[in-house]
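Consider the tokenized backbone below.
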């Protein structure tokens, strides 16, 4: 059916759902006459995602990728089942001689890659594993003692010198092999999950990512990282879900901000370096989603009710409740709010970071094993924080990062009667202004207000 004389490559898309700066796709197009873009809705992956928000965002991103590929004469072939088996089945069916795939860092992705490598060897297919997800690939920077970094500042210094890959342009045309390829259906999210999504979820896909990026480079970047940002008006990019699914390339982002080092560019590069830092930490320590990176012998309290009140935003600390309700409503939270709610769970309530990370993983549309686990362990004091006893006092944090109380009133509307910063301490306000359904505070907020 297919022409055996035409060099054909299969590109297995994973967390790199884009055409711009997609080195796996570009590599395939440069070495082969025909290219088959493939995404496998792996049953194991769908089970692992366990998040209606991320599944919906993923399916929107796939639909967008398919439509962009079709505009260029190609298509996105969609299969369901085991990613390795489906890739090989397709490669054999189209007579491919190579398979291109982006490198993954989680234990799941590493196992998939190892299996794919063994099977490609067996079938004499060339497997090309390329870095599509970070600016600096995991393992590229090592210390004198280890094959990875555990302290951010020296990593960041090396990262700044090391980074520099250039974005590759999107292909003008994508040539599928002749012979009539069945593209496969993209199922609706409702076929994969029965739960509903957060009502204010961003839209997935490369088009939405690029529109947001262009807007933010003009409106957000010039003030990014300036002192005085608050929870309600922080000029952050909100690109995290697009970075997670690879709808936008971190290499392209770095290239586009690197010339603007004065107006926020340097600070933004630092955040991209944090992302790479956690990715290389996970790649080298794949057990950390379950195990402490630095066990410190802490015992965690067991209190299902406190965990449920935290997750539902009913702790009686308005700033914590606002954060958790924003997370439920939007599937996203600003970094400062993530820090406050994570400190509250692990340091004030002494609950295990794993239970907090699981709630985040279910709700966050940007939920990412490396970033989520790395940051939770950092806040819990079991990870890479050089000051593991750091505690964020929620009331002091609230007064500093929500000085007018706008953020809390937006997400905890039952406290709307409280003016200005008084909204952060309802117990000090006249009881007439606080509705009886707003809960009494849980736990005791110790803690110094260290800059984190
Ligand atoms: C407890 C906790 C859990 C977190 N879980 C996740 C997660 O699952 N997925 C996720 O993408 N981020 C996570 N973060 C990091 C960070 O909060 C988000 O990346 C950021 O808030 C996303 O918003 P933004 O895109 O507007 O960020 P911007 O400020 O615009 O930053 C640009 C990009 O840099 C990266 N970045 C920024 N801060 C961090 C950081 N602290 N660690 C790693 N990368 C960073 C993100 O990719 C982000 O999109 C977590 C932070 C905490 C404290």
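A designed sequence for it:
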């Amino acid at each position: 059916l297919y022409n055996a004389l035409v060099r054909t490559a299969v590109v297995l898309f994973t967390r790199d759902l884009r055409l711009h700066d997609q080195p796996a796709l570009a590599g395939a197009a440069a070495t082969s006459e025909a290219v088959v873009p493939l995404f496998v809705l792996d049953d194991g992956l769908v089970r692992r995602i366990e998040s209606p928000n991320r599944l919906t965002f993923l399916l929107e991103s796939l639909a967008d990728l398919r439509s962009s590929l079709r505009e260029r004469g190609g298509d996105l072939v969609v299969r369901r089942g085991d990613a390795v088996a489906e890739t090989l089945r397709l490669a054999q069916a189209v007579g491919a001689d190579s398979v291109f795939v982006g490198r993954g860092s989680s234990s799941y992705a590493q196992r998939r890659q190892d299996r794919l490598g063994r099977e490609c060897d067996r079938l004499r297919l060339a497997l090309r594993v390329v870095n599509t997800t970070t600016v600096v690939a995991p393992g590229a920077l090592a210390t004198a003692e280890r094959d990875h970094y555990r302290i951010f500042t020296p990593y960041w210094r090396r990262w700044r010198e090391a980074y520099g890959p250039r974005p590759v342009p999107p292909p003008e045309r994508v040539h599928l092999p002749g012979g009539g390829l069945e593209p496969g259906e993209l199922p609706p999210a409702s076929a994969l999950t029965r739960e509903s999504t957060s009502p204010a979820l961003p839209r997935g896909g490369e088009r939405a990512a690029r529109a947001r990026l262009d807007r933010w480079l003009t409106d957000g970047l010039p003030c990014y990282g300036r002192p005085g940002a608050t929870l309600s008006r922080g000029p952050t990019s909100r690109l995290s879900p697009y970075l997670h699914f690879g709808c936008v390339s971190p290499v392209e982002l770095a290239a586009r901000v690197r010339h603007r080092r004065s107006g926020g560019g340097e600070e933004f590069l630092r955040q991209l370096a944090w992302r790479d830092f956690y990715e290389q930490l996970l790649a080298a320590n794949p057990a950390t989603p379950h195990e402490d990176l630095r066990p410190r012998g802490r015992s965690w309290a067991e209190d299902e009710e406190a965990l449920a009140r935290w997750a539902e935003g009913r702790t009686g600390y308005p700033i914590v409740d606002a954060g958790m309700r924003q997370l439920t409503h939007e599937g996203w939270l600003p970094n400062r709010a993530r820090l406050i709610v994570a400190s509250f769970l692990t340091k004030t309530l002494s609950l295990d970071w794993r239970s907090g990370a699981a709630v985040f993983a279910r709700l966050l549309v940007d939920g990412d094993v490396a970033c989520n686990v790395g940051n939770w362990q950092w806040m819990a004091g079991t990870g890479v924080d050089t000051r593991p006893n750091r505690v964020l006092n929620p009331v002091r944090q609230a007064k500093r990062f929500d000085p007018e109380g706008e953020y809390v009133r937006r997400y905890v509307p039952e406290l709307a009667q409280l003016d200005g910063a008084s909204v952060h301490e309802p117990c000090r306000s006249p009881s007439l202004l606080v509705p009886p359904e707003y809960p009494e505070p849980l736990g005791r907020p110790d803690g110094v207000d260290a800059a984190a």
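Residues 225 and 267 are 6 Å apart (CA to CA).
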